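Figure 2 data, in text form.
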Amino acid sequence: MCTNPNSLLAKVFKGRYFPQCSPLEARLGSRPSFDWSSIHIAQGLMRQGMRRNFGAGPNDWDSDEWKWQNIQTLFAEEDVALIGQIKPARGTKDGGFSWIHNNDGAYTVKYGYWIWSHKINPESITQQHDAAPSLNPIYQAVWKTNTSPRIQGFMWRALANCLAVAHNMSKKRLTKCKQCPRCGAEDEDVNHVLFTCPYARLVWALSPLAFLFYPTPSSSVYTNMANLLLHVNEMKDDEISMRLFYGPGSYGEFGRQEMTFASRGNRPGRIKLQKQLYKTLWSGRRIRRQSPRLHQLAKGSSTCSVAWILRDDARNGRWYGAKTYSSLISSLEAEAAALTWAMAVVDNLGFEEVVFESDSRSLIQAIAHPASWPRLQCYIDDITGGRRFLKATFTTCRREANGIADCIAKSSLSKPLYSAILDCSIPAWLSPMLEKEKPCVTL
């Protein structure tokens, strides 16, 4: 009813319950129907995350752009920054609503539950934490380990109890026997396969981590995995690669599967040779986590800067521009603001056919499917609106082909708010980067 007011459902409820206001401002009224009562209960939840988009003016006071001189005179400095985060529309559509707690602005039950549990009723989360300890730190430690994605995925499945052990297969009625095919234990669960089975204990005993499970492993897979990851985090990267993740647990499970399905088993010594082989193969392909680039903006900055560069058929720079804005809500809106301004400038310069490339796949998807991105509706209306000469095509590009625009944006951060730079000559200090990016630019 908020995002599609012309639907039959919205018109019926509007005529009966809120003829003069929006659904977020409507009262319950006297003798409401069961449907309206159920919808009205969620009104307080929706108010926590809905943001009004300014349209063309029929139902809100709106124009093409904010009158910044009047705004800076009437409002405090912190309010001016918040107003700058809202983009007025230039089209003829009325203003709608968008959800502020995700990138696309579309409300889902998932985000509604998040608002209810974290904003309206945070005691429920506290009660859940008191009733059962959170496993999030263990999962986070798994994904932070310096190992191959295959091993990380295996450890995650072990913690989530998603391995094809006899206990889980019997619950799914895929087998009737819960016994371990190696040692004959009555119940083969994940903890038994990885830690408590005599075969698994022998594999761990041959590894440098045998002291972690002396004299016997814990009966809980979470305790054993937590001890394992805690010890790994205190070790150096090279020691982690050498001692753990090529890796008694995962390849012990591989040996169990071979014995179960192929009727052959692996000896502990063979498992040790296999993990050393996988360690050697992976060590040459391991990619360490890279630190952010220097020109990326820090979170919480009060201003942001956007930039673009116009190239000709020979990939040479013709024009470039940069502009500073008040801090926008997300980087996606900054990408949309940059594209909107670039299109307006290129249109005024008289270019007829232009291919606009962006390294933001989300922005290109939003332009192709605007109904799924209500948060960017004002920008999309401006991007897809009629231009005098411009015939625009939108596509994605690699980050390597867009580094010069990032450098220009970084250099203009010190400029006054809402000041713009437009020049037809590329600075000399950007010439080496311009030549370097030419092979990456697609035409």
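Caption note: The longest strand covers residues 317-326.
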